[in-house]
Structure formats: structure tokens, C-alpha cells
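Interim report, section 4.2 (structural modelling).
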Amino acid sequence: NFMLTQPHSVSESPGKTVTISCTRSSGSIASNYVQWYQQRPGSAPTTVIYEDNQRPSGVPDRFSGSIDSSSNSASLTISGLKTEDEADYYCQSYDSSNHGVFGGGTKLTVL
Amino acid sequence: EVQLVESGGGLVQPGRSLRLSCAASGFTFDDYAMHWVRQAPGKGLEWVSGISWNSGSIGYADSVKGRFTISRDNAKNSLYLQMNSLRAEDTALYYCATGYSSGWYPNWGQGTLVTVSS
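Predicted structure of the assembly:
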């Protein structure tokens, strides 16, 4: 089994761009799709990126996802930050047994 | 509109059992795998268990294997989680979620809270 490691927290100013990383501990990041979920306090998670770089309908194109095999990591980039983007963000993938694997979550502060 | 509504949570003593349910509507239930994901208070998300559309493939996190049993009734559009030998560390908000073959969980319920305490 592998782990997904995210920074505990990041902060940036409105209008700026922030990138949240998600590093896979073993095995290739490209082996299994990576998803990104946004969770606001008191709410269930919602998807901002699925299958590495796909945006669900309704998610603004300020959100983008990518994977980097050289660093064995996935990244979520949010541009033109808005105060409403302040939330916890989780990356998620799955192992060879189709067991879900979540990163520890990153608290994004927009100040 | 896809709806997932969890129920069955509550306060339970350590060592006792609880059965969670998830009622699905707004989509063809037996087209999708289903999963349970939990979140302890103030903590991150943890995958608990998943079941394929026809119950032919089932998986559990190591933390619950041998104590929890996932099942589904496609005729009733329902997902279940039987939780036995509950421990304090099982205290969490339990979400049910749909699952795509790509590993994506597109739809989530609002969760049901399980508190294990004496």
C-alpha cells in the first residue's frame, strides 16, 4: 500500500495562485487516477478535479490538476483566488485492490 | 438529482454493534460501486469499505477488517455497513459515496455520526 502526503496548510492572498501538492509514497503517481475534493466546514466533500485533470461541470476553470512523474506527485492549482476557495482540500487515489487512499488534507487560507 | 441519505448513526458503547444505511435515489443504483468513507472529528477523510455493483468485489481498510461488513440491496437502492466490536477510534462521521471505475467518488451523502463511548 502507499500513502499520499499533502502539506498541512497553505495560505495566499485573493487574486493570487496557489498550488497544493500530493506526493505518492510508493508506486507511480501515473498508475492510478488522482482526484481532488474540496470540503468546507460542516459540509460533505465535493469534487474539484477528477481523473488527474478533469473538472466536473460547475467547477470554474480557475481549478486545474496535473501529475508529475518526476516528483511522483499530483498538484491542484487554483488561480485568481477568492475568499470562497478557503476550505480543506483532499487528494485521493486507489490501490491495486481498489481500496481508496486519501491524502491527509490541506487547509487553504485565503487572506 | 442524485441523493444519498445515510442513517443509523448514534451513541454506542465500546464493543457493541451498529448498522448504517444509505438510501440512494436519482440514479441507477446498480450501475455503480459504492463506498463508505469516514471522518473523525477534526480529522481527515479515511476510506472504510467499498463494494462493486453486484457485490462481487468487496474491500475493507485494515482498521476495520474483520469487524465491519459492507453489503447492498439493489432492489431497495440501499447500501449498508454492519459495524461490530466498535471502538472509540471508530467515532466519526460516516459518508456513503458512489464510485466510478476510475476511482472517483462523484457523489456523497451528508453523513451520519457514530459516537463510540461509555
